[in-house]
Design goal:
By secondary structure, the protein is an all-alpha fold. It contains 11 helices and no strands. The radius of gyration is 22 Å and the shape is globular. It starts with 8 loop residues before the first helix and ends in a 19-residue tail after the last helix.
């Protein structure tokens, strides 16, 4: 009686992984098409035809740099015993951003968490801690931005001060909670192990190392500066001279409008916030709408293209399937 040898699962896994990436590529393309179907392409194209190509390229480059700053932030916020290759971390960030702008509310954050845990190889607990710290830095950065906008605006609208106080209070409350969890569940202390749902708190190492937390906050500042530079470049591209304070007010407005994603890509909410901010700065309705559309277009297209390039490379290119070393996660060397 002959016995059949079962197929080697390790030989099957590369083809299976590549098939999953192909399915993800198709799903991502469909979601991007659905998210962008309501964008006013005709008006945006009419505005872009009369804009300066050089300044538009500068705006796109500034927005594309957001991915590098975000990846650097995650690299700093990882625990000292974890390392993820830069190319893979940047790819995870690019795909996460695409998910945040194509999936329903919180879907992109869940995608980023899963990619960092699985593809990044750090595990779910570490990934949750990194995302929690990143959101803390983001809330603090937005609060500082709104305070700055209220300070530089000659007659700032009342909603700006209210939003600044609200975000500042939320950031302070989150900092206190995460700091308490980090101290209570410090692995170096004699405290009992945290329960299952709070095991990720053991990895809040950045809150026990001020230099690391400062580096994470500095990356949030770099992200806001890149967004500010992109807005300035769009204004220059359209040939509409505005003071730098107008860019601060517009940036604050779109940051408030996109705190909670009410639509894929924040379509509608982003344009409305930018439009109202430009109207507040003294532009007529036509100029305000043109700048709002062009500004959002210069944000969406390069970042969606980056995520699409990662998906294409993983699915059809020479990237091959993700492989983990046999002795555990890919990051064990101390920082």
């Amino acid at each position: 009686m002959s016995t059949r040898t079962p197929p080697d699962s390790s030989a099957r896994s590369p083809a299976f992984a590549r098939w999953l990436w192909c399915v993800g590529w198709v799903a991502g393309a469909a979601l991007a098409a659905l998210a962008l179907r309501h964008f006013d392409w005709h008006r945006a194209a009419a505005v872009a035809r009369n804009a300066s190509p050089g300044w538009l390229a500068a705006a796109a480059a500034a927005n594309l740099s957001l991915l590098a700053f975000w990846a650097l932030q995650w690299k700093w916020l990882l625990p000292s015993g974890c390392r993820v290759a830069w190319r893979r971390l940047w790819s995870v960030v690019a795909l996460s951003w695409c998910g945040m702008n194509t999936l329903p509310w919180m879907g992109g954050h869940a995608l980023g968490l899963g990619l960092l845990a699985g593809w990044g190889g750090v595990g779910l607990e570490v990934a949750v801690s990194v995302v929690a710290l990143e959101q803390l830095c983001e809330a603090a950065g937005k609060a500082v931005l709104l305070i700055l906008a209220g300070a530089v605006a000659p007659a700032s609208p009342p909603w700006l001060h209210g939003a600044a106080w609200t975000l500042g209070a939320c950031a302070a409350a989150a900092l206190c909670l995460l700091w308490w969890l980090a101290r209570r569940h410090d692995p170096a202390s004699a405290a009992p192990a945290p329960p299952g749902l709070l095991r990720w708190a053991r990895h809040l190492e950045a809150l026990r190392r001020p230099r690391v937390l400062g580096a994470g906050l500095s990356m949030t500042a770099a992200i806001k500066l890149a967004e500010f530079a992109a807005i300035i470049a769009v204004q220059r591209a359209a040939g509409i001279p505005l003071p730098w304070t107008a860019a601060v007010i517009v940036l604050a407005a779109v940051n408030i409008a996109t705190v909670v994603a009410v639509s894929p890509g924040n379509l509608g909410a982003y344009e409305a916030a930018a439009f109202l901010a430009y109207r507040f700065c003294g532009l007529d309705a036509g100029q305000a709408l043109a700048l709002a559309l062009l500004q959002h277009l210069c944000l969406l297209l390069p970042l969606l293209a980056a995520g699409g390039a990662v998906m294409t490379w993983r699915a059809f290119g020479g990237g091959g399937p993700a492989r983990k070393p046999e002795d555990g996660p890919p990051a064990t060397a101390p920082r």
